Amino acid sequence: MLFRSYLGGWGIAAALGKDADLVICPRVTDAALTVGPAAWRFDWKRDDWDRLASAVVAGHVIECGAQCTGGNFTGWRDVKDFVRIGYPVIEASPDGTFVVTKHEGTGGLVSRETVISQLLYEMGDPKRYLGPDCTADFTSAKIEEVDKDRVRLSGIRGGPATPTYKVSISYQNGYKTTGQLTVGGPDAVAKAKLCADIVWGRLALDGCTFAEHEKLVEIVGAGVCHEGIAKPCDPPEVVLRMGVKCADEDKVDRFGMEIVPLVTSGPPGVTGFAGGRPKATDIVGYWPALLQKDQVQTRVRVEVT
């Protein structure tokens, strides 16, 4: 079992204050990588809530790299030169205002819309975005385009941080495997469903069964990404993706033996198998929790080489 606390930016600020050229962190929040340098550079205090909140917002904007410069953007047709898409640059000021931009000559797009799209990413309560250094009110941000590929954010408000750290707990949680085949039409979806039924039936004949929550069947190409929303269709080909998970490694490996035979002992049009029989791999379970901050001690060590 492994515990990791999401630390804030003050350890980074302390390391920079000791003239560190390179700061190697344990698990810190994404925004801490912006909060720490800003707090150090501008000599902010631990209760400069509004300024710290602005750094949290800045860190949130750039934490996914090019996702704020046109990557994964709904208006992707307006984005030029994905090949050389530029990564974001934050030009921060002591008062907490900052500009989002990118290097001149790079591809991509920085606009009010691309920045707002990233602001909404992984958002809970936008009025009280929680972090180890402060809380931030994302709705207070004034967002304006000031030039080509330059967006300025100002007016951000913040408040005290919570008394706890978020903790990620990882643990061994059984075994899993997946395999996939391409099924060509006509009637590709019906044949893919039959293939899945064949696998489960043959496993059952051998006394190898799985609970419903331990089985996975996806027919990629038939609306699985937006199931219940996208209109069902019968495409010319689909990808059948099957998987299992359970505590018994041998059972998981046994499942992997039934994918390949479908090519010659199932319905017609089955192809696309490669990579050998799927084998069992460990499942790393994840459990989020909260831990009182007084239970965690942060130390900064600077090594001179």
Q: What would you note in describing this structure?
A:
By secondary structure, this protein is α+β, with helices and mostly antiparallel strands. 23% of the residues lie in helices and 28% in strands. The chain is built from seven helices and 13 strands. The protein has helices at residues 10-17, 32-42, 49-62, 112-119, 188-205, 249-256, 262-265, and strands spanning 2-5, 88-92, 98-102, 129-130, 135-137, 142-147, 150-154, 157-159, 164-184, 215-220, 237-246, 270-271, 281-292. Strands 1, 9, 10, 11, 12 and 13 form a six-stranded antiparallel beta sheet that branches. A hairpin with a 2-residue loop joins strand 6 and strand 7. Helix 3 packs across helix 4 (112-119). The longest helix has 18 residues, at 188-205. The protein is globular, with a radius of gyration of 25 Å.
Total count of strands: 13
What's the pLDDT, averaged over the residues? Answer: 95
Order of helices and strands: EHHHEEHEEEEEEHEEHHEE
Oligomer: single chain
Instruction: Determine the fraction of residues in helical runs and give it as a percent range.
Output: 10-25%
Strand content: 25-35%
Radius of gyration from CA coordinates? 25 Å
Structural class: alpha+beta
Q: In this structure, how is the largest beta sheet organized?
A: 6 strands, antiparallel
